C-alpha cells in the first residue's frame, strides 16, 4: 500500500496535477508522465473518440481508449464492516465522475451484459451497478450498450463459454498484462467495440 501511495505522489508531482483517487494509477502513468503503463497499448491515432468498457461487479474491470491508448485496470467496491450496502454504489458513481474529469466524456460506453448469476446476492449487486451506470449515462448524455457475455468471449477466444484463464490469455495476445479476469473481460469488450467501428 505504501508503494502505491508513493507512486501516486510521484505521478502527480511529475504531471503537476493530482491523480484522482478512484482511477487506477496504471492508467495515469502513460498519459501524465509519458512513460508506458503496464496495460497501455496504442490502438489507433490520437483523434479516435474515447471509449469506456466495464465489467460490472464488486471487483470492477475497466478498459478505456483515451488519446489512442488502451488503458485498463480494476477497482474495488467492497462494502466496509460498518457501512450500508448502498455505499458501494455511491463510490462507483464517484469513480465514474473522477474518470469523466480525467478523460472527458466517453463517446460511447459498453458494459458486459450478464443474464445469469451464480446466486441471488450476485444478481442484486450487478443490478445495483447497472442501475447506477445507466442513470449516470442518461444524466450525462453518454450513449451506452450492453454486450452479452457470450459475444465477448467468442470474439476474444472463439468460444462463447471460454473460462477465465482463456480470457486472460486473449488479453495478453493483444499486448496487455491484465491483473485478473475482470480486467481481461473489460479489455476484450473494448477491443470488441473497436472492431465494431471498423465494420461501420
Largest sheet: spatial strand order: 1-4-3-2-5-6
Number of helices: 7
Provide the domain count: 1
Global mean pLDDT = 82
Percent of residues in helices: 40-55%
Query: What is the CATH architecture descriptor?
Result: 2-Layer Sandwich
Count every beta strand, where a strand is a DSSP E run of 2 or more residues: 6
Keywords:
single chain, 200 residues, alpha/beta, Nucleotidyltransferase, domain 5, 6-stranded mixed beta sheet, 7 helices
Give structural notes:
50% of the residues lie in helices and 17% in strands. It has helices at 2-15, 25-33, 87-103, 120-140, 149-157, 164-173, 181-199; strands at residues 41-42, 51-55, 59-66, 69-76, 108-113, 144-148. Mean pLDDT is 82; it is low at 1-40. Strand 5, helix 4 and strand 6 (144-148) form a beta-alpha-beta unit. The protein has a 6-stranded mixed β-sheet with strand order 1-4-3-2-5-6. The chain has a single domain (37-199), classed as Nucleotidyltransferase, domain 5 (2-Layer Sandwich), CATH 3.30.420. With 200 residues, the protein is an alpha/beta fold.
Amino acid at each position: 500500500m505504501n508503494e502505491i501511495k508513493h507512486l501516486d505522489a510521484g505521478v502527480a508531482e511529475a504531471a503537476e496535477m493530482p491523480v484522482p483517487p478512484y482511477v487506477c494509477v496504471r492508467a495515469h502513468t502513460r498519459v501524465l508522465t509519458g512513460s508506458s503503463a503496464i496495460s497501455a497499448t496504442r490502438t489507433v491515432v490520437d483523434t479516435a473518440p474515447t471509449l469506456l468498457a466495464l465489467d460490472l461487479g464488486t471487483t470492477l474491470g475497466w478498459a478505456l481508449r483515451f488519446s489512442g491508448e488502451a488503458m485498463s485496470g480494476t477497482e474495488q467496491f467492497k462494502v466496509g464492516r460498518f457501512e450500508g450496502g448502498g455505499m458501494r454504489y455511491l463510490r462507483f458513481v464517484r469513480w465514474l465522475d473522477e474518470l469523466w474529469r480525467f478523460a472527458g466524456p466517453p463517446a460511447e460506453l459498453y458494459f458486459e451484459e450478464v443474464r445469469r448469476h451464480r446466486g441471488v446476492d450476485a444478481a442484486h449487486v450487478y443490478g445495483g451497478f447497472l442501475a447506477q451506470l445507466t442513470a449516470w449515462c442518461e444524466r450525462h448524455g453518454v450513449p451506452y450498450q450492453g454486450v452479452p457475455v457470450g459475444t465477448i468471449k467468442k470474439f476474444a477466444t472463439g468460444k462463447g463459454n471460454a473460462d477465465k484463464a482463456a480470457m486472460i490469455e486473449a488479453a495478453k495476445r493483444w499486448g496487455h498484462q491484465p491483473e485478473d479476469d475482470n480486467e481481461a473481460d473489460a479489455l476484450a469488450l473494448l477491443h470488441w467495440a473497436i472492431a465494431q467501428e471498423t465494420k461501420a
